[in-house]
């Protein structure tokens, strides 16, 4: 090692002024240096000040890196350096020169500035290249001084000169004196740079953070990412990929392909690709908690075949940084940056912000998706409420499934009434267009709840998913059918109304939202339950209608016109009147003693009238208390009177377009009579407490056993009403008045009650017929009916041998008015004649007059003689 | 050849760096102080660019069970991931003889986790399991001392000098990876009380060694032969006496 020799000859004595000049320069330099903040200023100032006293060509500062024991240029004198034009200059200013060589070791171990003649050392082994390059540009000598920091060399100041001997003793001593200040200034610059970088980083992150905070959508995120990342120097392109829902692939989310627009087709292809996670690159990034720098060529060499890697290669990206985007413990995606160098802290700052924004956006998207789904469900729910029939429901279901899940209904099966079989309820046949024949064959099968798949679905809480491919492997016959749709999974859920299984629903899809399915299924369940109830209701209704018709029919047969028994003259007259009046709308007043069949006649009129298709409405005016009769006839509104808790339709309204039969009209209270009159006149009714009148078309038939004329006279019946009713009176004869009908009636009733009671009575003994004929029948046909009924019950054989006619009650009661003002003899005579007439002239024996009069036959004979009663008396009158 | 030494400023690291540089290799002494951090990943990618061999000599700053596990796992994962990306051809790591036998210790569990990560990484590797360093003897004595008495379990002990460890590590780094484990140990096998007694004598330490048969090492339960190689091991050149002499010279 040879250092530059400096013969110390003829050192001049420095004057005070010169010394003062030097001192001042040093002071100025010191002041300058301490105020320097920019690294370029430092060397310029240094050169300027020193050059004012000493000569040199240029100077540089190098810094030591102990990590690899090298030193590298830090401050350059671009203005004065003679080697700037040298071809190796660019290489030199970036080079790292080893500390492990004699030249720099000599400098390191010398506290004072040390100079070298370049020619002497530049060719020594290991000597740094810059010595030779400087020499080539005319530099002769170099003065090296170490810069110390905390007692350790931190770098060097190199001073070059093209004039040997420039580095005088004074020069050296000045440099030595200024070196510590220079060290301080370099340290400051380093610190400053560090602070500036940190500040830049921080403000970058802060800007990014405030941009990101405003992000609500993917588009906004893309804008924020773009505006921030574009500030990064050297960034050629970037892409954010998001992990897909399947958890196995990533798809481009946000990207900037960089300045060179790639082939549009290729870009579209990449954008729409799902890149598998485990492709040897993405999984490495996702597993690494630090950003990774990838060398594109090396990864291709490694045999990674991902299409995007080839794309990067074509785009001439050499290295890419991959950083995982992660929110808490969940990986969201990857940020790829086409960049040569990475600043870990900055990238991690960026990524954590992007991750949060992405997580928020994903959460937002999920929320709005949920909302959308719920809106659909609401619509569906709305549709469902309107649904009354199966077809309407099918339309609603197919629509909602298409809208919310983008699939078609495979099948809904509903459990039958027996609780064991399931029948197809509805399905979308178009889903199986590739296998219609098979589908039709399979769908018509009625399966049971024990069918393995159905039973599993019914037993499950929230339904099951059958993977079509797996089911085919397991030999599921249905799966072959499912496969024809090309969809991957069969989703099946039980349909439940309350706790009760009502059926199963089957949907084919690749993926379905479970929540959605649940929501839809519960609605479908309710709708199906409703439709089933509705269908049942309709069936009941139909049944009731049929029953009603049947009952009407029955009523019709019971009160058949033809069942009126009687061929006598009196009855023939009644029949004539009935047939005359039936076809009209005239009010009919049916008169007759009790039990003469007034209602029967009324029905006969109704049934032969044009109103016969509707039921005749009957009101028994005697059967209701006066207070209720009005509401019964005319109806009332809610709250019309105490106890009127709801609206009631009166019999008049009910009998609209039909016949109203007012039985026992004579018992109608006067007040009601007035109202009835009004209704008859106006043909309209007003409900009690009601405000509006209702038009009615009612045909009236009234009946009474009273003498209405007498009642009118007595003031118990309104005269005007009487005339209104008495339009077409029909007087029914009493049974007494038509003895010729007694035998047919007796036969008729015996036959009826024998049939009802199961007796086999075929005949009536002549004695009984005689007895029946001789009775006065105050209760008329009704009395006879009941008498026969009783007698039938008491008869053991096949012939009615005995009837139980009430005794001793008839004569006294009969028409007391006729008996007035007569002598005893007259009364006695007429009574005997009457009795003989009833007994068909039979005087003694069973059914004879003596028996009824309870006197011996002989006594009757003598009485007849005495009163002059002959055969002519009792046979002539009838 | 470019070699990165993680933990390059530590006891073994400095020696390995020096040895490799002396052989003319470009060596980067990586440590958080030189801007390369395996926990945060800082500087790692740049440091590993064009690197052929990585030597991992980093040690956990904390010895607490959970912290030490986290250190070795995180650092190991980050380092290996970066190595794969940079195409590093050889990963050399220093582990401990008997690591599998001393899984009672949290530190040993963490070292095993580190070994496992290396073996599963796919990066060609050489794991060097070493016995305790002679430089640890003082620490062993201090942590076992109660007043003037030093309680030492009478387990077998075959300490190796750090200098020898560095030599073996540097050697392994320059050889092709063996994708396996290589054990190294000191040239002499003793019991631990013997070694500690000899050390205290040579340093004129007045404390007395009391052997026991608890078979414990830093509180962890081990067996008598846990700390010595079970099979073939490369033996260091510096024996205990030489090393002690060297220590005295320094002092």
Automatic annotation (TrEMBL), chain B:
InterPro entries in UniProt: ComplexI_NDUFA9_subunit (IPR051207), NAD(P)-bd_dom (IPR016040), NAD(P)-bd_dom_sf (IPR036291)
Molecular-function GO terms, alphabetical: protein-containing complex binding
The NAD(P)-binding domain, residue ranges: 7-176
UniProt-recorded name of the protein: LysR family transcriptional regulator
Pfam family of the protein (one): NAD_binding_10
